[in-house]
Design brief:
- There is one protein chain.
- The chain is an alpha/beta fold and 283 residues long.
- It has a single domain, classed as Alpha/Beta hydrolase fold, catalytic domain (Rossmann fold).
- It is built from 9 helices and 8 strands.
- An 8-stranded mixed beta sheet has the order 1-2-4-3-5-6-7-8, sandwiched between helices.
- Helix 2 links the parallel strand 3 and strand 4.
- Helix 1 packs parallel to helix 2, helix 2 crosses helix 9 and helix 3 packs across helix 4.
- The longest helix has 22 residues.
- The protein is globular and about 45 Å long.
- The N and C termini lie far apart (50 Å).
Length: 283
């Protein structure tokens, strides 16, 4: 299946699935990049989850992960802001990062309190979300209340020993497919971006001044090494970081492991609720 056909298939699945879980979808107007509000029905939103979807830098959002984020938003009393950022290979790095940064800047211009915003992202989306927030901090934008990253892929040099020694087993990826996705993201025309550049690998970026962070990852995941090193990098700059480690599963736990789904959602809801309360002075 060609990339464009696969994108159309995932786009249809995403919209169908989101509509099945009782939400209202509102397309943003006049925003710097295409984006939509996803509001769980019955929620009087007190906060915003700016959700940067995954998809190996080349595809749209997974309907299963979007459902998960919607459930977290429902329990938190939040609405979701989901950008349709530019995808590789047509738009290599840093196009997606520029989109997220531009959208966040625009949101702040709409008189939305940054302390009512939580950045979220999964896998490739976590990479883009973290790099975007580092750029926002570099440009002295006010930081959101917190950040939640699921299975964050934050080192595109693939120097993670878990990848080198064990490969990528038990997931929907192979190491070869991941390398292809990274190559497409870094650029295939002209001179590609260096994978060690902090825009591509935010693990090597500046963590100083970033908001409190919750990381959730699976214990046997190839990304566990990235998660552990991100914790160390955050703590080295005096950051507030919490790592949630989940048991080994045969598949991607955050998408296909119902035995951990409820507990993972509860941990996310607790962290987000605490950060939003802290912003209100109710720590």
């Amino acid at each position: 299946m060609r990339l464009n056909n696969f994108r159309q298939t995932t786009q249809f699945s995403r919209i169908k699935t989101v509509m099945e879980i009782a939400v209202t979808i509102q397309e943003l107007k006049n925003a710097p990049c295409p984006a939509k509000w996803i509001i769980p029905q019955g929620v009087k939103a007190k906060g915003t989850l700016l959700y940067v979807h995954g998809g190996s830098f080349t595809l749209g959002a997974s309907p299963l992960v979007t459902n998960m984020v919607c459930e977290i938003a429902r329990q938190c009393g939040c609405k979701i802001l989901m950008p349709d950022y530019r995808l590789a290979p047509e738009h290599p790095c840093p196009a997606a990062i520029e989109d997220i940064q531009a959208l966040y800047t625009w949101v702040l211009s709409q008189s939305i309190d940054p302390k009512s915003i939580i950045f979220t992202g999964e896998q490739a989306g976590a990479c883009i979300a973290l790099a975007s927030l580092q750029q926002c901090q570099k440009n002295k934008l006010p930081m959101p209340a917190g950040m939640v990253l699921y299975s964050p892929l934050v080192d595109l040099t693939l120097s993670n020993w878990a990848i080198l020694l064990r490969g990528i087993s038990g997931t929907s990826h192979s190491r070869e497919l991941l390398m292809i996705a990274i190559r497409l993201y870094l650029g295939i025309n002209g001179k590609p971006m260096d994978s060690a550049n902090a825009l591509a690998s935010p693990l090597f970026g500046d963590m100083k001044g970033l908001p409190p962070l919750l990381i959730q990852a699976r214990n046997d995941s190839f990304i566990m090494g990235d998660a552990n090193r991100l914790v160390c990098a955050f703590e080295a700059e005096g950051g507030n970081v919490t790592l949630g480690v989940w048991p080994e599963t045969k598949r991607l736990w955050e998408r296909y492991a119902p035995e951990h789904y409820g507990a993972m959602v509860a941990a996310s809801v607790q962290f987000i609720g605490k950060r939003l309360h802290a912003a209100d002075g109710i720590e």
